[in-house]
Amino acid sequence: MTAPRGAGIVGLFPALTVAAFLLPIVAGLAGTLLPAFGYLPAIGGNALGLDPWRRLIAYPGIATSVITSLSTGFAATLASLALAVAFCAIAHGRSWARRIGGFVAPVLSTPHAAIAIGVAFLIAPSGWIARAISPWLTEWTLPPDVATIGHRSGWPLVLCLVAKETPYLVLMMIGALHQVPARGHVMIARSLGYSSAEAWLKIVLPQIYPQIRLPIFAVLAFSLSVVDVALILGPGNPPPLAVLALRWFSDADIGYYFPAAAAASLQLLLVVFAIVAWRLAEPIVTSVARVWIVRGVRRGMATVSARAGFIVAIALFAGSIFAIAGMALWSIADAWRFPSALPTTWTLGNWSRELASLRAPVSATLLLATAATLIALVLALGCLENETRARHHIGTRALWLLYLPLLVPQIAFLFGTQVLLVKTGIDGTLAAVVWAHLVFVLPYVFLSLADPWRSLDSRYARTAASLGASPSRIFFRIRLPLLLGPVLIACAIGFAVSVGQYLPTVFAGNGRIATLTTDAVTLAGGADRRVIGTYALLQALLPMLVYVAAVTVPACRFARR
Amino acid sequence: MTRGRTELRFCALVLIALSFSVFAEDMPWNDIVAKARGQAVNFNAWAGDEKTNAFIAWVGTEVGQRYGIKLRQVKLRDTAEAVTRVVAEKAAGRDALGTVDLIWLNGPNFLALKAEHLLYGPFSAKLPNYRYVDTTHIRSNVVDFTIPLDGFASPWRRAQIVFVYDGARISDVPHSMAQLLAWAKRHPGRTTHPSVRNFLGATFLKQALYELAPDAQQLQEPATDANFAVQTAPLWVWYEQLRPLLWRHGEQFPDNGPAQRQLVNDGEIDMMISFSPAEAAVAQAAEQLPSSVRTVVFDGGTIGNTSFVAIPYNAAHKEGAMVVANFLLEPSTQARAQDYREMGAYTVLDVDALPHADRALFDALPRHPALPTSAELRTPLPEPHPSWMTGIAAQWERRYTK
């Protein structure tokens, strides 16, 4: 069959979708790269040159900034990957593993900033952990003068990223498992004397790795260039490169635009370098691993290491839950000073006081997330429906395209995008922010919807067609209702992604559109923890409620039949 | 003939247009108030202090009821963000209908906008309540960091350096920067200052500069390479000794004042600099500091300044912004602002010159053991020229950012 007749409007969706998220990235990159070489006529940059780079290099802490970005980015990615692998190796085949998606949802859907704020309180020398063990165990009546948050090495930043990215990689691995006959392979290996974890590591992991490569790169790119978590937990003097770029972009002296653009471009280079380095290291790791696999050692260190990794992953997961719980407690605390393990006086006053100031960011958050998610859903459904009708799947290259917004550092193109938005006069409007969110929401919605969509039994549609149903009737009456569950989950994911956006909101909103996340990051700079608690808790709650709704609605609907 | 008539009519139109624009500049106050009705004013204000946010929200309700103005606080992490926005709008050619209507600023941010001619004005003298402003005793109300205001900003609150300490933990309270060093030697790790990129952190160094500079009078002049090196040399000697004795061995600093206050509340430090004489009282009322916290003003006097509201040249709602600026100067607004239960920002008005009923509002303000008396505060020292602050901050960054 050749190109289907009547593809009509549906045929336009792929082009529309690509335009929706590629345009801001490509134009944004140009808008950042030009000023990095001195060109931005609006503020007096008329000639191309290397001056912005010279100024970047002249910054006293630049080397440390770059090293911090690289070391924290790689450490976070390697640790997340190792823990996710260990977790999957141990969890494989257990009965509870099937419901893992439900378990990790609260951590996955909570914005990075909210977790970071919670982690900051957990690990501070005067934080919750220290309070819980003082003074009876530590004999501290005053908090010790040691650095945790903002430590030069950036380990708190790594810790928070690992806590947040490990569940993500676990989910991606579980998704990839569907494409591999893992169960059978593990069973055969076990009959040959391998432990279940060893079998998973030696046989399943090599098979699924190619499919989780892109998600790993997304984690790598994100960890290298994260801004909100780094603002809250990372070192400040000097900060990681992306934070340095943001600091210069918002400097009162507009001359700093140029080195800021250079820093943002360098950030892009770092990510490209990191991905290439990772890709080059893969064959080396593979050949080492092959020796290990071929040696055929049974009951070696692998099981023990996997178990240790599993325990660490669970501990981090529990830590994330405690991080959110700590903020929930602060939101109803009145006085809570070191070394009390719990608030000494309680109040609902924080909520009633903050109610007025919460209204605007909450409604903006809801509005943006709903709009971006719905648009993304329409575009993703349109593309998938077009794919079904045209009967060809997008290739690997198109998949890279989809991942582009997750691979290109935000700081590298958002500044350029802002210049464009200001030029067209739509900066600071809700529409501009919805668009900026869409760039990041769309890939997640599409990716989460694509697998269930493609694996839907095509015989339903064929039967309907043979009964005379039109393509659009088949779409609305057969495919959509059958896929209600995955559609709602995709919406919940899109919603959570939008709620968590910090930098896109700041740049496209031109500071005029405040969401829970932007306000929370602002407040995390030093405001009262009781106030931060209300923001962080709401940040965590909104996506979680949407997720719970997405899970329960189809369950109720199908239960009634 | 007809052609001549057309030309004449054209000229008349131009004249009318011109006189209209002149009229807009010199509009009587009543007309400004009338034009302000229905305007949505974007007030760009640093949002790191909840008390101030709540106060601005209250101002919003009041001007909404009285003048039909919809006041929106655009919450800033850093005032420089608003400056950047105005600059970006200028760069994009948006010379009218700008999105920033009112900015809370002073010091380098004010200087940056004024120097680039990005401010609307002069307008402060047009505000009916401006006549109550103390322009004689409080020099900082008319000269901001040695830069004359020329009516391009209207004062709304005052700040002066004090030190806040936990009286339950320390008894040997220092009374000067030199004594602070001796104190830190006895109690290493128990004090700090905000990051020098933050105005309060830079102010900590400026206060020390005042006390240590060979000729403090020089600080009123712009810093040059020659006098900068001479005047700041003792400062760096002192700071080299102090820094390792600070919290986290002087390798980390809280981002800003509120973050530093959180450290006192968490018991991580015992003493901190503050730019608000009422901070200790305000924070105790809000359970943000223990009730044992007290305030000390250094013996040699401390730096004080005024912060202002200014209107960008391209603001879409200049009339609304002016009405808000005027409301901020209302004696009852100023008295409420000074009440430590509300915001605790000292007034810019000459209280003694106020009408009796208005003065009574200030006399009736509640007292608190952590509030310094006006005798303790004395006359504030004027802010040095902004070049000193940028110079010190840059020098600090060169020395300690590695």
Fold and architecture overview:
The complex is a heterodimer of chains A (561) and B (402). The radius of gyration of chain A is 25 Å and the shape is globular. In chain A, strands 1-2 form a two-stranded antiparallel sheet. Chain A folds into 2 domains: 1-49 and 349-561, MetI-like fold (Orthogonal Bundle); 55-347, MetI-like fold, CATH 1.10.3720.10. In chain A, 74% of the residues lie in helices and 1% in strands. With 561 residues, chain A is mainly α. Chain A contains 23 helices and 2 strands. The longest helix of chain A has 42 residues, at 349-390. Chain A has helices at residues 13-36, 51-58, 62-91, 100-109, 112-123, 128-132, 155-177, 182-191, 196-225, 228-233, 241-249, 257-295, 301-331, 349-390, 396-407, 410-424, 430-454, 458-466, 471-482, 484-500, 503-508, 516-524, 529-559, and strands at residues 333-335, 345-346. In chain A, helix 1 (13-36) packs across helix 12, helix 3 packs parallel to helix 7 and helix 18 (458-466) packs antiparallel against helix 19 (471-482). In chain B, strand 4 (143-144) and strand 5 form a beta hairpin. The longest helix of chain B has 24 residues, at 2-25. By secondary structure, chain B is α+β, with helices and mostly antiparallel strands. In chain B, 44% of the residues lie in helices and 12% in strands. In chain B, strands 2-1-3-10-6 form a 5-stranded mixed β-sheet. Chain B has a 3-stranded antiparallel β-sheet with strand order 8-7-9, with helices on one face. Chain B has a two-stranded antiparallel sheet with strand order 4-5. Chain B is built from 15 helices and 10 strands. Residues 1-24 of chain B have low confidence and may be disordered. Chain B has helices at 2-25, 29-36, 50-67, 80-91, 107-115, 177-186, 199-212, 225-242, 257-265, 279-285, 318-329, 331-338, 356-363, 374-377, 386-400, and strands at residues 40-46, 70-76, 102-105, 143-144, 147-148, 154-160, 162-166, 271-274, 293-296, 304-310. At the A-B interface, helix 14, helix 16 and helix 22 of A face helix 3, strand 2, helix 4, helix 5 and helix 9 of B.
